[in-house]
Amino acid sequence: MQTFIGRSQELHALQDKYDLAGFQMAVVYGRRRVGKTTLINKFIDGCACNAVSYVALQRGEREQLQSLGESVLASLAPQMLGTVSFDGFESVFAYLAQAAQDKRVILLIDEYPYLAAACPSMNSLLQRFIDHEWKDTQLYLILCGSLVSFMRDDVVGESAPLHGRATLELKLHPMGYRESGEFVPDYTNEQKAIVYGLTGGVPKYLEQFDDAKTLDDNVVEQFYSSAGYFTAEQIQSLVTADRTNPAAFNSVLMAIASGHTKFSEIASYTGLGDVTYYLKTLANLELVERRASGGRPYYVLGDPMVSFWFGYVSPAASLINAGRGRLYYEQRVRDRLHEHMGPVFESMARQYCFAHMGTERFPYFATEIDEYQNSIKAGPGDIRQVELDLVGKDGGKTVFVGECKFRNQAVGAGELTDLRDKVALLPVRNPGLVFFSLGGFTPEVRASDTTLVTLDDMYA
Asked: Would residue 84 count as lying in a domain?
């Protein structure tokens, strides 16, 4: 059995509401495979009360009612299962009100958007029961869902019927690089970082890696084998719920993965003309991020696994089907893993900065950390492209700038000079200089007045 890893803050938040008297309602949501159900089940396992766990499927209203009713009876009155049925959701909810009159009862409705889709009045029905029938009970209602936009807008949104009823709202994000490393404790820090870069910290993806095997074997078995977890079918189920035109979504992702990041570039590469709908859908799925630098918007893949698959796996589809995936990996990919890790390492650096902000390990305080890309006029007819991995700001003031190098070579004096030259072109005053490096630093850099962080420091 997979050991439960991380999520201590989320567990404590769920437990804190459980320990309070009276009706409680938690809304837990996040993208698929991020570990929502695992978290809630771990919480329920530690509770000394009856718990109804219902997983809504894409079924009609009558089937949903029957399944929910059976789940309620199986937990609260198993002796009645098969002999009693409910004639409507109102009767199920009324029964729960009675059962939770003087003792804690948990009702988990997992994949709640499916239930709401089958029964359009469900939000209003729950609102009525919360306000009138359940408010004086010990019921602990947990609504869980993977359709982020629905949970955000139609469950907890300001115009939603259930707005203001939840006493706890948890949006689960992928795990950070530190927690992700706990899934492969026997790997080196470099290998842990690469696993994070291949999974994006999604628990279900991390579970596919076995640190009793080499990193190469894990990557080949899971990505470059037709029997692996990360197949084209698996990726497609993640990419979009719109089954009518999956090729269009794939084209958009492939465009971004191949370096076409501006709206016009994506439209031209895909031949779709207007790609607004596809980009918006992928952004709602948290697979694409819209960023802006120098006032110009561009798009990046927000999921490192998806970025790796479209950039390094998808081109090998024919070889993988022919059983030659290992050959492709060894010839075309293995030596480029550090290339894929570039933007991932920048994300790891941001996590480190926020975790140690204002301490001896990172003596700066910033409220936001972004990357920077812009063309700057250095003189008459001299336009230079300036790119920085990290720009930390506090109230609009730039407090530090930094670069991230995920490579085995040490950062040298030349790169320190380049960083200083870039800073000299910016309209900022004496920001701190920061380097994050896998390969360490030369003595000249170590002797400079620069904050230096190695990969081993990041895992210390």
From this structure: yes
